[in-house]
Amino acid sequence: MLRYLRLFGVQLRASTVAAMQYRVEFLVGGLLALFWTSWSIVPILVVFQGRTAVAGWSFEEALVVVGWFTLMKGVLEGAVNPSLSAVVEAIRKGTLDFVLLKPADAQFLVSTARFAPWRAADVLGGLAIFGVLTSAMGAYYYLRVVVHMYMKPDEGAEEGISSPTLSLALGVAAIAVVVIGIGADPLVKLAQVATAILL
Fold this sequence. Notes:
Elements: H1 2-19, H2 23-39, H3 42-47, E1 53-54, E2 57-58, H4 59-93, H5 96-100, H6 106-111, H7 120-151, H8 164-182, H9 184-198
Antiparallel strand pairs: 1-2
Helix pairs in contact: 2-7, 4-7
């Protein structure tokens, strides 16, 4: 496995070096990839500017679709398509035999033959969309709890239920927490001895 990770690194490095031979083209390709990645969000922003839903889709759901599309486009155009075109080129030139004779899995070598490094902007853009969405969703749920706790009036709030059984259970639990908290050292030593015997 480690061998194939090293081979993957070598193939990625070779593709990056080959792409950087023409520095201006490499920089322009990277800038265009960043531009199109950020531009893919603009139609969603325009459509949902004054609406909460379009055809049953919320803004967040549409953004998930755009994020998946951007991520998959980056993977396909950055890894799959360049490798497939390299295989076709090797078949046409008759050099695929050199790949098949190498002391590594031929399918792995063919699948990682060539990469388009600037397409990493699409992959990172898709991951950034998912990161923003998941953090917004998490903040929504946490803030909803805060709103319900502190900003909503207590309408029809009932008095707390008190019974002798509940009081007894809470008292026993509180005493157990204090006893275990103070006397944890002997329990830890006992657990260490037990694990030493098992090992």
